[in-house]
Amino acid sequence: MELALKIIFWVLFLTAVYAYAGYGILLYILVKIKRIFNKKTVIDKEYEPEVTLFVAAYNEKDYVDAKLKNHFNLNYPKEKVKHVWVTDGSDDGTPDKLREYEGVDVYHEDARGGKIGALNRGVDFVKTPIVIFSDGNTMLGKDSIKIIVDLFKDPKVGCVAGEKRIVSKDNDAAAGAGEGIYWKYESTLKRWDAELYSAVGAAGELFAVRTELFDKVEPDTLLDDFIISLRIVKKGYTIQYNPEAYAIETASANVKEELKRKIRIAAGGIQSIIRLKDLLNPFKYGVFSFQYISHKVLRWIVVPFSLPIILLTNFLIVYNIGCGKNIYGLLLLLQVLFYLLVFVGWVLKNLKIKIKILFLPYYIYVMNYAAWRGLGRYLKGKQSVNWERAKRGK
What is the pTM of this model? Predict the structure, then answer.
């Protein structure tokens, strides 16, 4: 019995460590090795195609002026940029507001079919070789189009993932502090993933695809950006990434709003892994399968459900053999400390303080707790595609 507990504990504990830290370390080493043996090929060719900036918007009237001003001032030939907005279901005057601007094609239907419905319908109106998707409330970096297009010079690239940047403040509450730290780490992993072979998915705040590779996805899809980008990988292309092509937005207004967003992502992650199960086959997808399992699958559907078992088995082992000078006593102490910091983060979650790292354990806990909630919603089929975006801070 004791041996079985130890085996379970070590397998799950090392899996959790690998998912959150070990993969990043291994990825860094592999990238360093690749840089030694493979000199980066510079593709020098003139490539400046027409692009479409595509926004699927629902009740975004308050953001229209700032968003279009941002798009009109991006560093790319104006005559080569098309603007397409799909505003299905919007009833706050968003379509009328958009029609005040010349050069913006607005496609509106009164019925609301969710973001994926708008994408599936709207892509038929795209006539350019590259389509760039972004959210209605995000502002793009000035050189984003140019940087994205440069990555498409490589014919092996089928999708480009943009950087999601969270507005950082000196004093942030739990949601802003935790989300900001987490996304900095995620961005680093994404950069190394892309350098090793391919980024593992794209975020809807900013990503681009070759229009000919876009496949309409199932109407009940929850993570449309993830499914769209990884199905392009299944066709033999890669997802590339440059952090200088970025979309910036404020953090979730509070932990409640961030939890709402994370629950949806968790439900969508489970749905995506099931629908993209072929990518789990390393004999077919090689390096990408390794990246996909390490970066996404373990975090989404293995680690969250392992953490309670890790704590329980650790406690039972210490209970049976004592907590003297042994590794099990130390690891149990560290786990207890982690959960104490989670509690501290929960108590202070609405306070704005400068010591942002204090909120990281709480944010990690919220992510893993959301996986449990997301699994419940997925199994019950209660996660609607007509999702209200989490409220963002000011």
Answer: 0.87
